[in-house]
Amino acid sequence: MKHLIAASALALMVAAPAIAETTKTAQTTPAPATTEAANGQYYTTSEKTDFMASKLIGARVYATTAQVDTSKSMDKVTTDWKDIGEINNIIVGRDGAVKAVVLGVGGFVGLGEKDVAVKMSELKFVKKTGDNADDYFIVVTGTKESLEKAPTYKRTAG
User: Fold this and answer.
1) Domains of the chain by range and CATH?
2) d(Cα 30, Cα 110) in Å, to the nearest integer?
3) Nearest 5°: CA angle at 32, between 29 and 34?
4) CA distance linking residue 105 with residue 4, whole number of Å
């Protein structure tokens, strides 16, 4: 047993410099440029109108039958906008496209609320005036009643 331990220790001492050299080389050798990076596989800079999906979850949504002008900034919700609920989830297809957002509508303090999926293209983003250029109101066309009567979104497998 003593010979086995001694032989193992000797083998480790002999191999240690080689292992250290391999580790050092691997850490200092720069990675070769990839063709994926050159071909635009990566998204490296956000555009001015981009936002993180995490900012949508929990955002309040308003409904109106009036025309919504997204080119103007607003400081507050207009009187014809009705608070209909908030965004509970986002549905993304395997192709990467956002198919819809799931709105929690109706109810009070989360009780009696139902999920309604609205196509992403139906959301209008109206910039809020003020210090934070990233703030906006989210508005959909319709009435509070029409959204409460809309078909319930039923989540399937996944």
Assistant:
1) 53-149 (2.30.30.240)
2) 53
3) 155
4) 72
* 3-class DSSP assignment, residue 148: helix
Q: Is the pLDDT of residue 37 over 60?
A: no
CA distances from 18 to 11, 23, 40, 118 (A): 11, 9, 39, 61
**Interstrand relation of 60-64 and 136-141 (parallel, antiparallel or unpaired):** parallel
SS3 8: helix
User: Does the reported pTM lie above 0.90?
Assistant: no
| Distance of alpha carbon 125 from the chain centroid | 16
pLDDT of the residue at 10: 39
Distance (Å, whole) CA 20 – CA 15: 9
State how far the Cα of 83 lies from the Cα of 60, in Å rounded to an integer.
7
